[in-house]
Amino acid sequence: MFRKSVLAAAALVVASAVTSAQTPAPAGQPAQAPRPRAASPAGSSATQVAGTWGKNQNGGDVYQNGKWIEITYGRPLAKGRDMFGTGADYAKNILRDGATVWRAGANVTTRLNTEVPLVMGGKTIPAGEYSIFIDTKSPSDWTLIVSSWPAQQKYDAQNKDALWGSFGYTPDKDVARVKMTMGTLPMSIDQLTWSFVDMTSDGGKIALMWQKVVASVPFTVGK
To answer: Is the pLDDT of residue 180 over 60?
Structure first.
């Protein structure tokens, strides 16, 4: 499932690059205008765990029986803004319209798909699909929330059984709440990025990076 989604995403990126490249217009005709881009395009980050390295029939290295973990999310751009702020204004640019926790992305709710159980902060998260939020209490105190709340794929104000972003979030569907390790990057990341870092076959860290903020949570593969 995850392999197909990652390959499809890669193919889409290549196809978009090819089709969006401007080609010379016929003599006497204006060049085609570039297609508009989404302000916060969809993104994904994926990794494989619990597999082993072996050789294929041609003697090349191949990763066998790996299980996919994937995060899908919207990727907002800072565009020169201070997204987090300080003091009484902290997190006001990312928490709007009554949201009490951050969607940690843009538009549709950030989603975690895992083919294996994950252990975070002593909690086991069974294989499946979840929503991800972050409680941004202060610059040094963030909590990752893994929730069983379903996500709306298109905003519907009448749908109270699934969330758009983090609007309407309640903690009754929390599966895990894990304190994040906060750090400062040596450069500023303009486009919000989720990534898997410090990976081994048995686990690693899930990390969010935006501007000079990096927040991460370690995890291991569960049984």
So the answer is: yes
